[in-house]
Amino acid sequence: MAFQLDSDASLLKPVRIGDVVAPNRIFMAPLTRSRAHADGTPSDLATVYYAQRAAAGLIISEATAVSEAANGAYVNTPGMYIDRHQEQWAEIAGAVHEAGGRMFVQLWHVGRMGHPDISGAETVAPSAIAANMAAHTPSGKSPLPVPRALRTDEIAGIVADFRAAARRAVDAGMDGVEIHSANGYLLHEFLSDVTNRRDDSYGGAPHNRARLTAEVVEAVVDEIGAGRVGLRISPGGSAGDMREVDEVSAYEELLTRIAPLGIAYLHVLIDPTTPTFGALRALWSGPFILNTGRDTETDFCQLESFAEWGAISAATVGRAFLANPDLIDRLLLGAELNTPDVATFYAPGPVGYIDYPTLAELEEPQSA
Ligand SMILES: Cc1cc2nc3c(=O)[nH]c(=O)nc-3n(C[C@H](O)[C@H](O)[C@H](O)COP(=O)(O)O)c2cc1C
């Protein structure tokens, strides 16, 4: 695939996102790559990988656990809850900044998507409803267990874990954090009418289902400042065996409640042709970042139109950035893009991680 952006394209214009000015509006989407050490410390390969992609307007990191119990959806995913994690994230922040980039760390709790054989911890969720899916554990594929419903008195601890991880991210030199409330993980599970059947103040009516994500956003804003906080949601998305019946009301409550905080951005994974997109877009006056999340290749033509009309402040691109460290240059030149290799998305090691060639490397004469 090739697509050429004019040098005066809207996607190539700078945009202010909270405390950061991004030089272009093509951001790198969060991508779990399963290359961290078993204790959740990112590897040195991650430093190379992210620095290679520093030309993105903003890099949003792979999902990163706020506590040991918050991890466990995939093997070898990183954390941000001990000093060793923070020190390695500081290396990454330094390398990305040195290469001219900007970076937020995405923070998650995996909720019912966690498997005890990966996390070593009990799987917890808003309600005892299992995802009808399997996890890839160290000993092979295994169905996700029925989670234990969190007690009301445990929820403040989860909010505190997000707050503490955000503090660590900023202390590591990151430009901010993105709170992951999408794709069927814990915060999304609370928002959803399918996975949240609670009868306390965190369940039932839409404003109750929105409460946990809102409290996390409020706590993280209080800790590191609104200009360094983004939020990702995926209303109506099917990832994580999640299909909300009412995909609007809890999100309306959430966006209305957090709007006065003035966070850096709202990042929405959604088909922009749906009525839900229109309803939620109209509710948000701050920076709005879109990820169209289709199975097909990124439609840069569509994204450029949205940016031109002012419907979006920026777009995140996942697989195309994964496979093209020099994506921005290629779009400017209208060059062919490397094809992402699905087989190495979550495989260990450098192959399919830091060895996707830039255009310049492809054009170098091969030595005999
Ligand atoms: C390998 C892979 C890992 C992903 N990991 C995450 C993640 O850690 N956090 C997240 O919010 N979304 C994650 N996603 C979803 C992407 O952020 C994005 O929404 C999806 O790839 C669609 O965008 P694209 O068409 O530009 O690739 C992942 C997607 C892929 C392909």
From TrEMBL:
CDD domains: OYE_like_FMN. Residues 11-334 form the NADH:flavin oxidoreductase/NADH oxidase N-terminal domain. GO terms for molecular function: FMN binding; oxidoreductase activity. InterPro entries: Aldolase_TIM, OxRdtase_FMN_N, Oye-like. Transmembrane segments: none annotated. This is NADH:flavin oxidoreductase. It comes from Mycolicibacterium rhodesiae (strain NBB3).
